[in-house]
Amino acid sequence: MSKPVAFVTGAGGEMGHLLLPALKSRGYDVVALDLVPLPPEIGSSCKAAIEASILDAPALEEVFRRHHPQILLHLAAVLSTKAEKDPDLAHDVNTNGTVALFRLAREEALAAGRNVVVMFPSSIAVYGLPDARAKEAAGAVREEDWVRPAGMYGINKVYGEMLGSYLTARARKAGEPGLDFRAIRFPGLVSAETLPSGGTSDYAPEMIHAAAQGRPYSCFVRPDTRLPFMTMPDAVESFLSLASAPAESLTRRVYNIGAFSPSAAEIREAALEHFPGAEIGFDPVPARQAIVDSWPADVDDRSARADWGHAPRHGLREAVRDYLVPALRRRYAAGAAPAR
Ligand code: AKB
């Protein structure tokens, strides 16, 4: 019997490094798309790897025509800091690319007579708290509160969430196959395999990787800045749990998930515990500080826990002690650079 096909866009990015092997081990034929060739360690998890932009309509059409994916995991995106520098590019990639893909997924569903599951990594960037006082008062935000993004990336993600939810509801109403859209608003993610680029939660992984490499690090936000974070293995596990959850257990299309919510100073302390000589200072960059100041300090993820069993393994202490430090020591002792 042929295996189900999972189509992953932006497959060579941070999440792809753990997601592609995880999909393969769960029995999928993985079809990957990225702008650049996949690193061999993840390319080997794929049945096919296509080098193309998310804006390359013929390339996307060819993937659907040839592979007929049952599940689409749409990871390609321009992250928040880069999106503020080039909002037109962000709009093209994050919105126009998403619209084109969702259209192809809908056509595939209609032609094949079955739903296509569409997994969408949204972000805490969809929230927009107006000032520090509102951020503190809000505490752990619920999915329906404060969805007023102040930045381009958050705006693009809200549109993707709304479009996916709308197309799903529309197909149900018409009694037709269509999208089965499911989204997670990810917090900042920290991986031992890769370093992010172009995001604004990047200070946490950058700080810990620099400490492990014995390089000085200047953090671009204030020490008291607090954001929710999660390790990449927990993020991938949650993404796949939501993908495989029975439709009837879902009470919403878009879920918050959280794990730990440290201040930047607490991340520094956790790094120093394991790398006592690390030089970590603070030199806030106003534009980047403003972005994280508009994001919540914590998220209310009760729906994810109740509906499909979101249960992250790592708090801050476990993340650093059990996941990051051993993996980073191995990686940098071997002289390797983090993949980007
Ligand atoms: C970013 O910083 O842009 C991303 C995110 C929080 O979605 N890591």
Features:
single chain; 340 residues; alpha/beta; Rossmann fold; 7-stranded parallel beta sheet; two-stranded parallel ribbon; 13 helices; 13 strands; 46% helix; binds 2-amino-3-ketobutyric acid
Overview of this structure, please?
- The chain is α/β, with parallel strands linked by helices and 340 residues long.
- It has one domain: NAD(P)-binding Rossmann-like Domain (Rossmann fold).
- It is built from 13 helices and 13 strands.
- It has a seven-stranded parallel sheet, with helices on both faces. A two-stranded parallel sheet has the order 6-13. Strands 8-10 form a two-stranded parallel ribbon.
- α1 links the parallel β1 (5-9) and β2.
- The radius of gyration is 19 Å and the shape is globular.
- 2-amino-3-ketobutyric acid (AKB) is lined by residues 79-80, 123-125, 153, 186, 188, 196, 199-201.
In short:
By secondary structure, the protein is α/β, with parallel strands linked by helices. Helix content is about 45%, strand content about 15%.
- The domain count comes to 1
How much is the radius of gyration in Å? 19 Å
The ligands bound in this entry are: 2-amino-3-ketobutyric acid
Q: Would you count the extended β strands for me?
A: 13
Assembly level: single chain
What letter string, H or E per element, gives the SSE order?
Answer: EHEHEHEHHEHEHEEHEEHEHEHEHH
End-to-end CA span: 36 Å
Instruction: Please state the second-level CATH architecture.
Output: 3-Layer(aba) Sandwich
At the fourth level of CATH, the homologous superfamily is: NAD(P)-binding Rossmann-like Domain
Poorly predicted segments? none
Helix content: 40-55%
Mean pLDDT: 97
The secondary structure category is alpha/beta
Main pleated sheet: 7 strands, parallel
CATH class: Alpha Beta
Number of helices: 13
Shape: globular
Please report which band the strand proportion falls in: under 5%, 5-15%, 15-25%, 25-35%, 35-45% or over 45%: 15-25%
Strand order of the largest sheet: 3-2-1-4-5-7-11
**What is the fold named in CATH at topology level?**
Rossmann fold
